[in-house]
Design brief:
Blueprint (H helix, E strand, L loop, with lengths): L7 E5 L4 E5 L6 H4 L5 E7 L3 E3 L4 E6 L5 E6 L4 E5 L12 E3 L6 E2 L4 E5 L1 H6 L6 E5 L6 E5 L2 E3 L5 E6 L1
Antiparallel strand pairs: 1-14, 2-3, 2-13, 3-11, 4-10, 5-6, 5-9, 6-7, 7-11, 8-10, 12-14
Length: 157
C-alpha cells in the first residue's frame, strides 16, 4: 500500500508562441538548467499570463522577470527575454502586484516584443520550475502554444 500518492499538475503557456526545449535558450544559465527545468517560449504576442493558480512572490524592479508560487508550492520563474534587465523596465507594463493571488490565464504583464527586438534583445522567454527537488516526472510539450490555454509542462508533486 502506498502512503503517499503523487498528484499531477500542469503549467499553461505564459505567452503565445513557439515552445522549445529549455536547452535551446540562448543563455547558458537557462540552457544548462542552473536555475531549474522547464521550457522556453519564442513569443509572437505581447500578453504575458500566469501559467498557474498561485501567488506573485517577486516582480523584478526592471519588470523582466516574475516569480509565482503555485498553489501546489511549485516555484515558477517567468523570465521575459534575454538580457532585458538592461532595458530598466522599458518595454514592459506590469498588471499585478507582489503578494497578489492570480489564476491560470490571468494577465500579468505586457511585453512589447517589437520594442525589445528593436533594441537588439532576444524576446525568448524561459518558463521554469526552480524548486526541482519538490517536483517529480516533469514533462515538456513543445510546438505552438496559446497563452493561458495550451499546456506546456506536466509534473507531479
Amino acid at each position: 500500500m502506498k502512503l503517499f500518492k503523487h498528484k499531477n499538475f500542469q503549467l499553461l503557456s505564459p505567452v503565445s508562441g513557439n515552445v522549445v526545449s529549455i536547452t535551446e535558450t540562448p543563455d547558458k544559465v537557462f540552457s544548462d538548467k542552473v536555475l531549474g527545468d522547464g521550457v522556453t517560449v519564442i513569443p509572437d504576442k505581447n500578453e504575458v499570463v500566469s501559467p498557474v493558480d498561485g501567488t506573485v512572490v517577486q516582480i523584478a524592479r526592471t519588470l523582466h522577470a516574475i516569480c509565482i508560487e503555485a498553489d501546489n508550492h511549485a516555484e515558477i520563474l517567468l523570465h521575459l527575454g534575454i538580457d532585458t534587465v538592461e532595458l530598466n523596465g522599458e518595454g514592459f507594463t506590469c498588471c499585478v502586484k507582489k503578494g497578489e493571488h492570480v489564476s491560470a490565464g490571468q494577465k500579468l504583464m505586457d511585453m512589447d516584443i517589437d520594442f525589445i527586438k528593436n533594441r537588439g534583445y532576444s524576446t525568448v522567454s524561459p518558463c521554469i520550475i526552480t524548486n526541482m527537488d519538490y517536483v517529480k516526472n516533469l514533462n515538456v510539450i513543445t510546438g505552438h502554444a496559446e497563452a493561458g490555454k495550451t499546456v506546456i509542462i506536466t509534473y507531479e508533486v
